[in-house]
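Sorry, explain these tokens?

***
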Amino acid sequence: MAGRSNEDLKEITLLGNQGTKYVFNYDPTLLEAFDNKHPDRAYFVKFNFPEFTSLCPVTGQPDFATLYISYIPTIKMVESKSLKLYLFSFRNHGDFHEDCVNIIMNDLIELMNPRYIEVWGKFTPRGGISIDPYCNWGQPGTKYETMAEHRLMNHDMYPEKIDNR
């Protein structure tokens, strides 16, 4: 199978860049996309990000989570290093857990216009309680909109019995 040409990857500037700069404040412009070589096939791409950090907007204390991002691409796909740097940019961003996962999903929809996407944050407990917000979206008027509704209603069918994250 032939690889990608430099022309195919002209929008990718972060991957392979030895001068990586880490941004400490939320910055959606860090996200980069490339063309999906299989736009006629529906398939999942899943990212697990166990080192997500943001700040509580009230106390300023850090919040830690594992993020699960899954999507079914259409024409564009998110480049993983840009996603990592983008997620890192939440480090000093103050927002509630629920807002963070929705912001991330909205930014990825704007970047890629996927068929379907879901973002699930599993935050470590603070004050004796953990918060695990889940959001998803499917292209309106397609079977993926129906899929999103179904997955939203059934996303946590097997909740954890004991988890001392």
About this structure: The mean pLDDT is 89. Strands lie at 33-35, 45-55, 62-72, 76-78, 116-123, 134-138.
